[in-house]
């Protein structure tokens, strides 16, 4: 359900903040960029409160990317 997270994807691109969870309105959200190869990878955005999450494939990894964040194991995609 990536479309639920469109506002959050926009927030990240503007100020590197996920903002309010679109499911439970919690601000306890986070994201992580994972490099797979050659400067490209995927991004996981999630809510620590309700565990809803979204996976975005084929993003470019840059120096501003939010890497090395622990991704919770019990996320719901
Ligand atoms: Zn939530």
Task: Jot down its keywords.
globular, three-stranded antiparallel β-sheet, 13% helix, binds zinc ion, 1 helix, alpha+beta, 77 residues, 3 strands
Summarize the structure.
The protein is an alpha+beta fold and 77 residues long.
Describe the structure.
The chain is of the alpha+beta class and 77 residues long. It has one domain (2-60). It is 13% helix and 32% strand. It contains one helix and three strands. It has a three-stranded antiparallel β-sheet with strand order 1-2-3, with no helix packed on it. The chain is globular. The protein starts with 5 loop residues before the first helix and ends in a 17-residue tail after the last strand. The structure holds zinc ion. Residues 21, 23-24, 26, 47, 49-50, 52 line the site of zinc ion.
Bound molecules: zinc ion
Instruction: Point out poorly predicted stretches.
Output: none
Principal-axes geometry comes out as globular
> Can you give the mean pLDDT?
95
The main sheet comes to: 3 strands, antiparallel
What structural category characterises the helix and strand content? alpha+beta
Q: Assembly type of the shown chains?
A: single chain
The portion of residues assigned to helices is 10-25%
Strand order of the largest sheet: 1-2-3
Report the order of strands and helices: HEEE
- Supply the number of helical segments: 1
Give the N-to-C terminal Cα separation.
7 Å
């Amino acid at each position: 359900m990536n479309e639920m997270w469109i506002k959050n994807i926009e927030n990240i691109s503007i100020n590197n903040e996920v903002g309010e969870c679109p499911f439970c309105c919690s601000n306890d959200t986070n994201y992580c960029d994972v490099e797979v190869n050659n400067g490209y990878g995927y991004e996981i955005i999630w809510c620590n409160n309700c565990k809803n999450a979204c996976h975005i494939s084929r993003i470019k990894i840059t120096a501003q990317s939010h890497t090395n964040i622990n991704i919770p194991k019990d996320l719901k995609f």
